Amino acid sequence: MTQAAVAANAPRITKQTPLSVAPISLRPRFNPNATDPDADVSNTALPSDVDARQASYFTANWTAMSIKYLSEAGTVASATYFETIGWKGVLEREAGSPDPLNFPSEPGQRFPVWETFHALSGATTASTCRSSDAEQIDALVVTGTSIHRALIVNWTPESHTIRIDGSDPVAVDPSCLTILELPARN
């Protein structure tokens, strides 16, 4: 993931100062290199900084892996993702989508990325975790005082069966985020 490379190389510029990364979103907020920064070149009916995938499991999975790879770099002190409410957020606004044709959602709906952040509640540490084929299945393992869980991402259109640290086999369905409670480590 590109974010991992940027985070790993940042200390060369910051002289070891921990990074705060914000805002993290699917689409760029603006193009600082454009000759016309206000031009919308997104080729969608939505504003250029809005991605219709925000309301999908793609964003839940992408966010879990972003957190994984930024954590593994060991240079990021804090990261701020998305907005809270609206089509760039984790919850739809109470009035619903301003463009329901191109961004279908229900008023007040929790987008799947909400599950990612909910699963991280109580986590204090992200552990290094390697997949035998990260382009198909990858995971973020987090621990805290009372939690030890894996957020498992299936990037393929098929179901897969996986094992984490010798655990029992777990079916990982496509198009969702699988959250697995792991046995506590001593």
Instruction: Supply the CATH architecture.
Output: Sandwich
Our estimate of the beta-strand percent is 15-25%
Shape: globular
Binned, the helix content reads: 10-25%
Describe what you observe in this structure.
By secondary structure, the chain is an alpha+beta fold. The protein has one domain: Golgi alpha-mannosidase II (Immunoglobulin-like, Sandwich), CATH 2.60.40.1180. The chain contains four helices and eight strands, in the order ααβαβαββββββ. The strands form three sheets. Strands 3-4-5-8 form a four-stranded antiparallel sheet, covered by helices on one side. Helix 1 (2-9) runs parallel beside helix 3 (57-73) and helix 3 crosses helix 4.
Secondary structure layout plus pairing:
Elements (H helix, E strand, L loop, with lengths): L1 H8 L1 H4 L4 E6 L32 H17 L2 E6 L31 H8 L4 E3 L9 E7 L4 E7 L5 E3 L7 E3 L4 E5 L5
Helix pairs in contact: 1-3, 3-4
Task: Quickly describe the structure.
The protein is α+β, with helices and mostly antiparallel strands and 186 residues long. Helices cover 20% and strands 22% of the residues. The strands form 3 sheets. A 4-stranded antiparallel beta sheet has the order 3-4-5-8, with helices on one face. Strands 1-2 form a two-stranded parallel sheet.
What are its keywords?
Immunoglobulin-like; alpha+beta; two-stranded parallel ribbon; globular; four-stranded antiparallel β-sheet; 186 residues
